[in-house]
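quick q for whoever's on today - can somebody do inverse folding on this one?? i tried earlier but teh output was garbage lol. tokens:
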């Protein structure tokens, strides 16, 4: 299973199933490959912003739009292949 971070923020991720779990950090544009989960069932993947703000809170992902106009669209989401 491959995990990608296509956001402008570092992202902490967790991946696991009923018998094992792993985690790590992905910088913007970085990916992680976990082939040990490729044929498992009920695999759970979670992400959160890895930019820590006081007091020990992790902010939501954010996108800065330098210039907007009619028809500007912002999308952030999770997908799997």
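ok took a stab at it. sequence:
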């Amino acid at each position: 299973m491959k995990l990608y971070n296509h956001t402008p923020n570092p992202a902490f991720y967790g991946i696991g199933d009923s018998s094992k779990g792993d985690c790590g950090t992905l910088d913007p544009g970085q990916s992680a490959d976990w082939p040990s989960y490729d044929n498992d069932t009920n695999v759970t993947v979670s992400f959160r912003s890895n930019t820590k703000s006081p007091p020990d809170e992790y902010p939501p992902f954010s996108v800065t739009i330098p210039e907007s106009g009619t028809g500007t669209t912002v999308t952030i989401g999770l997908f799997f292949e």
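fwiw The radius of gyration is 15 Å. also The chain is about 0% helix and 30% strand. so keep that in mind when u check it
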